[in-house]
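Re: that chain you flagged

S.,

Sorry for the slow reply, it's been a week of failed gels. I finally had a moment to sit down with the sequence you sent. For the record, here it is as I used it:
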Amino acid sequence: MKAYPIELRQRVLQAVDNGLGTREEIARVFKVSTFWIRKLLRQRNQTGDIAPLPYNQGRKPAFRGADLELLNDFVEENLDSTLEEIKEHFSGKVNCSIVAVHNALKRLGWRYKNRYERANKIAKM
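Prediction finished late last night. Pasting the structure tokens below so you have them in one place:
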């Protein structure tokens, strides 16, 4: 859902500040929820700004920047290493799970070879 435009936010707050009705009535007029009005008032009181808040894109990856480059270099040198071995190698630098290691390798373009060649062997795509 897209954020409400700044003009609507200003009009709603102006109506609340001027006492043009209860929050329920103002919410009905502007077709917004009373909860949203409370949130907008709280945001204005805490930050002094009524602009839409930036969207949080979720959890940051465990391996990024220099750590991601180190991971790539390590895997190039140790092609037979398993996810567990990679995790243990980086345990002092990066606090991560096996899934985080797998996701980082996937972002780098590494994949596992066929189980016929060797289980858990890594190859570059």
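What I noticed first: The two ends are 37 Å apart (CA to CA).

Talk soon,
D.
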